[in-house]
Structure formats: structure tokens, C-alpha cells
Amino acid sequence: MIKHKWLAKAKKISRAFLFGFFRYTLMISLSYMILFPLLRMVSNAIVHPHVINSVGAIWIPQLISLDNFRVAWHIMNFIPNLIFTTWNIGGIMIFQIINAALAGYAFARLRFRGSTILFILVLVTFVTPTQLLFLPQRVMFQSFDIFGIITLIRGEPLNLLSQPAAMFIMAGLGQGLAGGLFIYIFRQFFRGLPKELEEAAYVDGAGILRTFLTIVAPMAKPAFLTVGTLSFIWNWNDNFFPSVFYPTDQFFRLRIATLQRFGGGTSTLQQWLLLIRGRLPQDVATLSTPQYDVTIISVSILLTILPLILLFLIIQRQFVQGVERSGIVG
Fold first, then answer.
1. d(Cα 48, Cα 66) in Å, to the nearest integer?
2. Which of 130, 179, 219, 295 could form a disulfide with 174 if both were Cys (CB 3.0 to 4.6 A apart)?
3. Cα 188 from Cα 163, distance rounded (Å)
4. Contact 97, 322 (CB under 8 A)
């Protein structure tokens, strides 16, 4: 009897061990696959320019240096472009939050004619490629007018291309990146809130807007955090809308859009190095190899995503809780 109990316990322990071993092996493997590009960029970023692509080291460089960061930092004009980009993305995020929150609350609580059809149209935006809409949007903002009022005042419509106002207006009107998804997130969250508090506010004489601002909005902090984080990250990484509305503005994104080699064996990077040569070590400023160009581009990409990594590390716990409570999973 004791032997059978011991065997059963041993089988149970062995199963638990095998299950745990398989689970952690799978998690480590998937994590490695996901983090491999980032780890590789970090490894290439800290290598000394003179030992790039050395066969003697793969992950840990033979010589460690921050010269690559210095070169990319100066070429990108990092701090001014970071401030400009954060200001633009922050404005878009705020407009998208306001639009999605009000629309989501209307779909969740208000009953009006055509609400079902309108919400179906919101869902349709999930599967509508943004490329299908960029031409009419570009034409609209190239000759922007509101019922002819602007033309009546100025004598001609406004040209909002290459202006932050274009993407602000799109975000405020629900036409921005993933606007339909953000409306859906707020709607699902508001539908899960108890109606008793809102009904009590109505009895006390509060209107719809006052009830939303004083009762509903304070309880929707997880939804606001989720939508704000997703909006900031997705707009930060978006390349399509800036290429449409900022065709000549190289300061909207922290990246080197013109860093491409052209004929003659030279590159745009070398032209930038000539401009900032006085701020770099002499042995670095005179480098001119294709491998070095690729390394600097990789470091520039790493600097571009670095603010997003820091943001997620700061708010990761609140973001996960917001995702669980905002209805995305369900």
C-alpha cells in the first residue's frame, strides 16, 4: 500500500516537473525569438567601429564603445526631434481619447435611431485598410474648408498638408489610426459598469455630459490608460500617415528617412558625418564602409524605440490591468 502511494506521488511529481520544464522551455524559446532582433541591435550598437563584423565575437564585442550612439545621436538631432515628436504624438493621443470615450459612451448607454448601424460601421473600420482612404483625406486637407466659411473669410481654402493640424483633426473626428478599435474598447468597458450610479445622477438632475465627466470618466481610468498607451505606441510607430500628411517634414519622426546609399559608393550618412565631424572622434568621423552605415542605421532605430521601451517599463503593471478590465481579451 505504501509502495503504491509512493509510486503515485512520484508520478505526480514527474508530471509536474515535465509540465513545468516544457512550459518554461517554450516561454524561453518564444522570448528569445521575440527579443532576438532587439538584443542583436544592442550588441551591434555597443561594438567599437573598428571591429564591426568581427568573426571573433557574436554577442559580446571584443571592444565596447558608445561612439555609435554618439554618431546616431548627433545625426538624428535627438533631443529637439524627441520633443517635437512627443508633442505631436501626445496631441494625437489626447484627441483620440476624447473622441473614443465620448463615442464609446454614446454607443454603450444612449439609445437613438440608427445607433446599431453606426456601430456596425465602426466595426467595419477594423477591416478597412487605411490606404483606401488616404487619397480623399489628402485631397480634403490640401483644400480644407468648413461649409465654405474659410473660403469666405480668407478667399481660399486652407492647405493643412505638412501641418500637425491635419492629424489632430483626423484624431478628433475618429479618422485616426485604429480609431474604431478605441471606440470599441470604451464601449465594452462602459457596458460593464453598473447603471445605478448614473441613474442616481440623473435623478439628482445631472445631464448626460455632467454624468459622464463626474461619474463615469473617473471609473474608466483603466480604459483611458489602455487606449492612451495603444494610441501613443501605434502612432509613434506609424509610417503611413506621416508619409501622406508630412511628405517633406523629416522632423516628425525620430528616424533617418534619407539614410540610403546611392550611386558612386558613397552614402547620405557620410554627408552627415562631414557636417558633424568636429563633434566626433577623428578615427570615427573618417570611417566610410557599408557595414558601418548599416550599424549606424541600426543604432538610430534603437534610439527611436528606446522611449517606447522606457514608457512600457514604467506603466507595464497598470497597462496589463487596464487591458484585463477594458474588454479587449473578452
1. 8
2. 179
3. 34
4. no
